[in-house]
Description:
Elements: H1 3-27, H2 35-39, H3 47-73, H4 79-104
Helix pairs in contact: 1-3, 3-4
Amino acid sequence: MDEAALGAWGLGLASAVLLALGWAIGVLGKVNLINNYRAHPERYPDAQGLGRWMGFTLAAGGASFGVAAMAAGASLIGEDGVGIWSGATAIALVALSLGGIARYRRMPAAGGGERKRR
């Protein structure tokens, strides 16, 4: 097996994992798979909205990696094209994931949170 085929299989595997995570989080509502939510669920009052956002983001990234894997496997694009495509998809995944966390997170009070009673 040559390196291009191995890379296409790797992208296909990444695609399957992201699609499965997107399904579990977005459709099945398994928001505990989101690390930031699991650590501080009280900060996210709209868990369902966060789950839909993250599920769609992961599914879109998985679909993009899947299309790149198929294009690479069929030799429709070269190694440089696969690298650019995968890099752009990874950057978009990070940006949209962090954007979803920021969008659905409840902001603490301006005074730094709750005041301690003496």
